[in-house]
Each structure stands twice: as C-alpha cells, then as structure tokens.
Design a protein that fits this description.
The complex is a heterodimer. Helices cover 29% and strands 28% of the residues of chain A. By secondary structure, chain A is α+β, with helices and mostly antiparallel strands. Chain A has two domains: 54-171 and 211-320, outer membrane lipoprotein receptor (LolB), chain A (Clam), CATH 2.50.20.10; 339-449, no CATH class. In chain A, the strands form two sheets. In chain A, strands 1, 2, 3, 4, 5, 6, 7, 8, 9, 10, 11, 12, 13 and 14 form a 14-stranded mixed sheet that branches. A six-stranded antiparallel sheet of chain A has the order 15-16-20-19-18-17.
Chain lengths: 450, 301
C-alpha cells in the first residue's frame, strides 16, 4: 500500500523505489547462495579421522564386506570414445555407461540380494539379484531377462546357503593357500622382493587348518599388489556427506594408460564410497568415476530386493551353466582358453585367438527383433525421405538403430589389419585374422604387438 | 517505462486518458477476496482460456483413441515414452499425455495466461481501474499470480482427468507396472499417478512467476507471452548441451521430467524436493522482480 503522491516527497519516493528494487537483488543473492551451498560430491573439509596405514585400512575394508548399503551413485566416464547419440534418446540403457554421466540407485543387503537401477529420464534399467536368481528389466523395451543357475549350480548354492546359516561353511583347504609365489610371477619380480613375499607367504596362515583372517588376506593382497603399484594414503575427504579415507594406487609401470586409481573409504563403516581411475591422457578429470552422492547403511526394504516380472511381459530365461572350479590352487587367475598374456602387471596385454568378432556382432539377434529397424511408413515418398534423413556412418550404414553391429562400428576405427577401439584407459585391437588384443596400454603398443 | 521515470515529478495532465501515478485507493477489508473471486471468474470464464483448456483435454482423448485404433496393427507400441504401456493399463494414459504435453504445449498455454495477467489489463486500459479498487498493488499482483497459478493447475488437471477417464474407458485400469518392472496395487498406482500430475502442476510455479514478471514490463501482452514461452524452450536447449552441465541444475526445466520418480520402486523424495526447491527459487526471484516492478511502475493505462 503506497501513500498518495501528494503525501510523500520526491526523495522519499526515490528511496522507496530503491528499497523495493533491493528486494529482488536480495532474493537473487539468497537463492544464488542456496545453490552455491549444495553439498558437493566430495570436499576436503571437516575431516578428523584418526590416521591409519594402508594395511590397517584394507583390513578394515575386507571385514566390512557384508554391510547393507543403499544410496545414489553417480557414474561418469570420460573415456574419449566416440559418442553414441542414440543412447540419450532411447532411455536408460547400459550403453549409456560408455560415456557421459549416469545416475544409479543401489541397494544391497550385504549378503546375496541387491538391486541396481540405472536411471534415465522417465526410463529405468534394473538389475536385481535375489539369491540364486537374477533379473534384468528394461522399461524401454519392456523385456525381462531371468538368469538362473543350472541344477548342479542351484544345488551347490543351496548347500552353501544352508551351511552359512548353520555356520558350518567349510574352512579353506590349507593346501589351496599359496605358500610361495607362483614361478611365473616370481620370475618377473626383483629377486629381493620375491624372496620377501615368499617368506611372508610361507609364514602366512601359519597353523595348518586355520582360516586366514581378513587382516591376513588384506596384508597378502597389499603385498602382492605392491609388486606392481605404490599404495599411499591420500588426504581425507568428505564423500557423500561421510568422512572418508583416501587410498591412492599408482602403477609402478609407466607403459600403462592408468595414471592412478583413487579409492575413498568411509571412515566409520569402511565401505568404499568412491573410485576414480585417472588416465595418463587427461590430468584434469578422472577418466572413470563411480561414487555415492548419498549413502545410507540401513537394510533395504523387502520390496526393493525382490522382483517378479510384470504380467504380460516377455521373459527371456537364461540358464547360467555351472563353471568348473576355477583353478586357484596354483595361485593364478583362471584365463580363458586360447588367451595369452604379454607383459605384466598394469601394462599386461591379453590376446585372445580365434574370435570372429564380425560374426558375433553381425549375428546379434536384437538387430532382427528391433521393430524400429523395420519401420514402414504408408507412403513410398515418405519412406524415401526418412531413409534420406537417417544418420548414416561413413560406410553408408544406418546409424539410428543401436544394435551391436552399429555400436561396434561407431566405437571402433578401421586401422591397417583390423579395427581399433582406443579410449583413455583401455585399448582393444581386433585383427582381421581373428585375434583380439586388450590392454590398459596405448593403441600403438597393441599394434606393435599384433 | 523505466523505474527512473517515477522519480520525475508528475507532469501536468495532458488529458483525461493520461494520469500518471494514479493514487492507490485505501485498503478495505474483504476487497481482496472479492477481487480474487472476480479474477478467478475472469481467468476461468474467459473464452480464450476455456479454448486452451479444451484443446489440452483433446490431447489425451486423441492419444487414447489413436492407441486404441492402432493397437492390433503393425504400428502398435511405437512412439515416445509410455505410449506402448497405455494399451495394458489406462492409468498410463495420464502419464503419457502429461509426458507429451510437458515439453511445449503446457508451457505455451501457461505462458499465455501468465504473460497476459498484467499486460492484458494494461492494454485494454483496465489496469488503472483495478488500482482504484481498495487493494494495494502488492495484493493486486498476488491476485494476478493466484489467477495464473489456478489456470496452470486447471491445465494440468484437465489433461490428467480427461486422460484418466479416457484411459479407464478405453483400456481399463489394473495394477500399475512401474519403470522398475515391479507391479504395485491399483490404489497405490492411482496415488502415484496423482503424484505425477501434482508434481507436473507444481513444476510450473517458476514459469508463472517468469510470465508475471514479463507481464509487468510491457503493455503489449503478446510480447510478454512470447518472452515467457521462450524461457522454457531456451532452458531445454541449454539443458541438452553437455558442455553446460555446470548450469544445468539451476535451469527452469531441468527437473520437469523428474515426475518419473513416482514410477520407480522407491520414490526418490529428495529428487522431487530438489525439483520443487528449484521452482521455489525461480518463483522467489521472478516474483520479487515482478513485485518491485509493479509496485514502483508508473501506471498510465
């Protein structure tokens, strides 16, 4: 309510005008301030956790494995891959993880039930694991896939579950615990280090039949990891609103594309909250980042951890065959047949032989099922027009359908003797003679090997 | 007219039509409510606004009929968003219709009403008569804001109600399948769809404030409407540029499609609260700008 003009002097009116325009200025400042105060994913403020060593921290982490966790995770990939534009339009789809930023919701009871939902704008891709069953569901295609173990696997799973409930899980066979470094690993290490690790392993579990404790396991992992990398404690951070320790793993080897791996671990629950992988190609931002933006340690509700496919949905049943016991007795990781490893540690290159990638991607059944690939328009002219405006790649192929073949063509570039996928962290070379070389090394290294 | 003009002493009246700084009438109790009632009657009784509401209600009707007629043909299941789901559950027609109207049609209609709120009165020369009503300018602006908000709510409600009725009649309603693939009972599903409509309605608070501000700047309503429509369009364009992700969280349209939270197995209330907080921020900034402009402006028509 303003007074009549006659009742106020010129200066008071000017003052009143100024005062009134000051209100929006203050409003902008307040709103701007509120925006600026939004909690960041990570900050270095207000951390006062007691100092720990890397070994102590790893020990705590390995003990904390069965913590129920739920929260929102933001995943960002800056791999330098060619962008796949259709991913944005087609809704939540795992191919979105190749580049850009994605939001996921994660729930786990810490044992054997979990749900991960990849959120898209008005779409969702869910992966639910409920004991021995697993489901994936895509809201975009409306397809549910049910993964089950085969009979033998199911029986074994059930047996393990009952034993876990009764607390009679078999103790680790002491013969399977390595008491010395496998020769192929030992041969590549400096003699002094190998001898030290050997000594530690021999002293390892000690009493025959005793279970190695998480502490022992953590120390062993650290010792073996230290052969190729340097572990250091970074500055403490606040991640997802929790005070966290930071471990920086730096490869000792500079032939690899990985510059360092940074892991932030909750200082009170010892759940890893954020992992960053930095590439040597980009010092300003991590090539891969996966971290909670908010996290809660309450047990997730029953509704979240169970899944039953919606009625009327086509359910594809996939039976996962029971794999042979991985041969961990000799301490090496099981490698697929026909695979050879060149190099060691971070810069190791895996070479697979006899893989016909072209047939694999060309035979992709989704290319035939996708209704949009057979889109027909009533009039012929319209059909021509649509074909004309469809994005095509340099080989004249229609780039609109995101089947495996198109994806393969988009992501790889033709090079002499094959096709090459090169990203900030990993390079893949598919040669025309059916070999696939994969490694965290620059593309030129792969080409030299091939 | 700039606010600086206000400081200039009133020039001698050039004629009966030109009376700078018309004195505001003293406030009288009850006048505010009477003014509000008459404003709502005006907004909802206006032929143009009624035509907009009818046009918006046609969207779910046409959408439902098209999906129904093509459901057994080769064209089934094609189209954006939830259109494929509609055949299975009429409740989805509400979500599909709002999804289709949200990017452009709804902002257009709401921009027309809010951009017209003050500028329309100025153009027809009725604004100065409104100032004679024993209600302060601040309250007059509040009445205009409420009128525009009620119209925005009516637009969303028109789509939602017509879609619910059409969907139920053409496809029937059954337990709702969420984006997460889980199925919730019908009562829960209906509540979730109502939540979608409510969130979409509340998402237009910021746009109404922007429209109201532009409306106080000009006496040409079309200019205010056009300027208001441009804001969500530009905002959507900026939101699609990954290079600008630093400013994305404050864009007017950034959280509009978060209504999808209601269709997830666990509703992300913090996400919805973030979207509403953003609207509140836009409403505070542009509401206060509109207020500063309207209470200091020299109103001559």
């Amino acid at each position: 309510m303003s007074p009549t003009p006659s009742s106020r002097s010129l200066s008071s009116r000017a003052r009143s005008t100024r005062a009134r325009w000051a209100v929006p200025v203050v409003a902008v400042a307040v709103v701007g301030g509120a925006v600026g105060l939004r909690p960041l994913v990570a900050s270095a403020e207000g951390t006062d956790l007691p100092d720990v060593t890397v070994a102590e921290l790893l020990e705590q982490v390995s003990q904390a494995e069965s913590t129920p966790v739920s929260g929102t995770v933001v995943y960002t990939a800056r791999l330098g891959l060619p962008s796949v534009p259709v991913a944005e339009m087609s809704g939540a789809d795992p191919t979105a993880l190749l580049g850009g930023s994605s939001t996921l919701r994660v729930w786990t009871d810490g044992v054997d039930r979990s749900r991960i939902a990849l959120l898209g704008a008005v779409s969702e891709y869910s992966v639910v694991r409920d004991g021995a069953d697993a489901w994936t569901y895509s809201s975009t295609s409306g397809e549910a896939v049910h993964y089950t173990l085969d009979e033998a696997g199911r029986a074994r799973y059930e047996q393990m579950r009952v034993m876990a409930e009764e607390g009679t899980l078999p103790t680790l066979d002491p013969a399977a615990v390595p008491t010395a470094l496998p020769d192929d690993v030992a041969g590549r290490l400096p003699a002094e280090l190998a001898a030290r690790i050997d000594a530690e392993l021999a002293a390892g579990p000690g009493v025959t039949g005793e279970l190695p404790t998480p502490q022992e396991a953590a120390r062993a992992a650290l010792r073996i990891g230290e052969a190729y990398s340097t572990f250091t404690m970074g500055e403490q951070k606040t991640v997802a609103g929790r005070q966290a320790y930071e471990v920086v793993v730096t490869p000792k080897d500079d032939a690899t594309l990985v510059d360092r791996v940074v892991v932030d671990v909750d200082g009170s629950t010892f759940v890893p909250l954020r992992v960053q992988v930095w590439s040597t190609q980009d010092a300003t931002a991590p090539a891969l980042e996966l971290g909670f933006t908010d996290v809660s340690y309450a047990t997730p509700g029953e509704a979240v951890l169970t899944f039953s496919p919606p009625s009327g949905t086509q359910v594809r049943e996939v039976v996962v065959p029971t794999q042979e016991e991985p041969s961990t007795a000799d301490g090496t990781l099981p490698t697929p047949r026909d695979a050879t490893v060149t190099g060691e540690g971070w810069s190791g290159v895996v070479e697979l032989q006899g893989v016909d990638v072209a047939a694999l991607v060309a035979g992709d059944p989704t290319a035939l099922l996708d209704p949009s690939s057979q889109l027909t328009i009533g009039s012929e002219t319209a059909q021509d027009l649509i074909q004309q405006f469809r994005p095509t790649d340099e080989e004249g192929q229609v780039g609109l359908e995101l089947d495996a073949a198109t994806l393969y063509d988009t992501l790889t570039t033709p090079v002499e003797g094959g096709r090459l996928l090169s990203s900030a962290l990993v390079s893949v070379l598919v040669t025309d003679d059916g070999r696939v070389l994969v490694g965290a090394v620059p593309a030129d290294t792969l080409r030299a090997l091939a | 007219m700039s606010p600086a003009d206000v400081a200039v002493p009133p020039a001698p009246p050039a004629g009966p039509a030109h009376r700078p700084l018309l004195p505001d009438a003293p406030a009288i109790r009850g006048a505010f409510l009477r003014l509000l009632r008459s404003e709502l009657r005006l907004v909802l009784g206006r032929r143009r606004n009624q035509a907009l509401l009818v046009g918006l209600s046609l969207v779910p009707l046409i959408l439902g009929l098209v999906v129904r007629l093509t459901q057994d043909s080769a064209l089934q299941g094609q189209g954006p968003g939830f259109i494929g789901e509609v055949t299975g559950n009429g409740l989805f027609l509400v979500v599909a219709a709002l999804f289709v109207c949200l990017p452009f049609l709804l902002p257009l209609c709401i921009a027309i009403a809010s951009g017209d709120a003050v500028a329309g009165e100025a153009q027809t020369g009725t604004l100065r008569y409104l100032l004679v009503v024993p209600v302060s300018r601040s309250r007059l602006l509040l009445v205009k804001a409420v009128g525009a908000l009620v119209f925005a709510a009516s637009c969303v409600a028109a789509i939602a109600v017509v879609a619910a009725v059409t969907g139920a009649a053409l496809f029937g309603v059954r337990p709702l399948t969420l984006l997460s693939g889980d199925t919730v009972p019908l009562s829960d599903g209906a509540l979730r769809v109502a939540g979608v409509a409510l969130y979409v309605g509340l998402s237009f608070i910021g746009l109404v404030a922007v429209g109201l501000f532009f409306s106080t700047l000009t006496e040409v309503p079309v200019a205010a409407m056009a300027a208001t429509v441009v804001v969500p369009v530009v905002s959507t364009v900026l939101d699609s540029l990954p290079q600008l992700d630093a400013i994305h969280p404050v864009l007017l349209t950034h959280h509009w499609f978060d209504f999808a939270e209601f269709l997830r197995v666990q509703v992300g209330w913090d996400v919805l609260a973030g979207g509403l907080a953003l609207q509140a921020g836009w409403a505070v900034v542009f509401g206060s700008l509109a207020w500063a402009r309207f209470t200091t402006a020299d109103i001559t028509s």
